[in-house]
Amino acid sequence: MQQIVNGISLGSIYALIALGYTMVYGIIKLINFAHGDIYMIGAYTGFAVVTYTNLGFFPALIIAMIACSALGVVTEKVAYKPLRSASRIAVLITAIGVSLLMEYVMMFFVTADVRSYPDVLSNASFEIGGVIIKMQQIYILITTVLLMVFLQYIVHRTKVGKAMRAVSIDRDAAELMGIKVDQTISYTFAIGSALAGAAGVLVGIYYNSINPLMGIMPGLKAFVAAVLGGIGSIPGAMIGGMSIGVIENMVSGYGGSLIKDAVVFAILIIVLLVKPSGILGKNTREKV
Amino acid sequence: MKKLFTRNALITLILMAVSFVVVEVLIQANIITAYYQITLATICINIIMAVSLNLVTGFTGQFSLGHAGFMSIGAYTCGIITVANPTVGGFLTGIVMGAVLAALAGIIIGIPTLRLKGDYLAIATLGFAEIIRIIVQTLDITGGAAGLNGVPKFTNWPWFWFFTVLTIILVNNFIHSSHGRACIAIREDEIAAEAMGINTTKYKVMAFAVGAFFAGIGGALYASTFFFLKPATFGFLKSIDYLVIVVLGGMGSITGSVVAGIFLAVVNTVLAEFTAVRMIIYAALLVVVMIFRPQGLMGSKEITFKLLQKKPQSNKQE
Known about the structure:
The complex is a heterodimer. Chain A has one domain (about 1-215). Chain A is about 75% helix and about 5% strand. Chain A contains eleven helices and four strands. A two-stranded antiparallel ribbon of chain A has the order 1-4. Chain A has a two-stranded antiparallel ribbon with strand order 2-3. In chain A, helix 1 runs parallel beside helix 5 and helix 3 (about 55-80) crosses helix 8 (about 180-205). Chain A is globular. Helix content of chain B is about 75%, strand content about 0%. Chain B is built from 13 helices and two strands, in the order H-H-H-H-H-E-H-H-H-H-E-H-H-H-H.
């Protein structure tokens, strides 16, 4: 049970990151490798806000989200937009390049040292039936759920969301219907990156340490989560994220902490081989 | 076989011999000191790795992010064998075993994953490379996370020269065979290639295995040169290093990989003290090249001797 509780709070962070992957993939068919690093930068922004301005948790969260969405949009405009018509491999390599660039530029400026987050949420914990639940875990879960509800609202109830869904189904047709495709893509990046930024702040608080390369592993795992849940599907990303978080904690809880990453990747490969569309994904057929 | 000794083949042979002799003389004359011999080793390993990755990614169009995984199999195999049997015979066995095991891993990994396409394949190969790394980390025979220390050093310039030239020639021949043409057809359009009767899975796995084989050789040379192996060396970033070379040189250009391999090894040596700056330059290079020249600096062109005849260049270790 304890592992499940820990798993859910870790999983909700993965889910937040996975949402960004899923949205971007849904709309421009790109695995945005830099997404994990946007999450890292979110963590640093939150750290800077909390440490230097003494603002509380929520202002830090919001500032980090805004900073990250700006960064996401800039990345998209500078690096991905010129490659709209290029091959997918070219775009993917660019994404890897952007990711490395963010990591090492950050490393250059903030040094590779691990920093510890100040306590902005209470460290209190309580016990229900032998399971220890930290207040922080509750905050993480609440924040995640709120953000997801908000996201669902944007995607299903607003015009921007409608445009996003239209572009992800058929970009050309959407453009013919008068949807500004580039603008919609920018919105997608902004929203996805904001979620990653929030995840960064939450992770900083939860694990209490951040470093410039922290985005690689969670980024990859969140991608696994997105694939598991069905790439392009928002509820899928949530389910996938939670599952990966719980599985990972279960594996390390039963003495396999060394192989927990291997297990996650094994899940990825199994999913890709057995049901590449994921749990909630749509089957697409390749056409000539 | 008729064409074995055409003019081009002769020039190639002469150039290879010249490159060997020139560098050997420079080493003997102590102009290439021990410090620069490390750079030389890096150049050769870069070339071997990049040419083999180019076969998979550039020529067959299968985007692999797991090349360092195969390299680590070669490195650890050779390392373990030479530690147990520190003779030249042991070293040769190590290289061959490393390459064969890497190729086997390539087949095992290739058969399931090569059904995937594009970015899914990239992630799956990345996942496999990570799994290989984690397995290496948990085994006892490989020294676990602490690494394998004291691998005896056998490599010197003749070894490097031999294996680099071997890799270039064999990969080049592979590409110009009917198998190679099948691979290029798959890159251009997989569905069309299949419709033309090419067994796409077979050729993809073949290219993958051949690529892994040479990556194994590269890894074995690495083990013997740097005599210390740890799992973290062969992570995701190592795969990216070689991908950068392939991309920079041009996907589908062997000479491009060779030139880029030399160039980046030299850049590495110059920037050895500034790791962070080096990575920023790498990353920026990758993004800029992709935005302005997505086909890489050379595209799929090769530096051929026709070019050389027009304007003679210094020998490029061809």
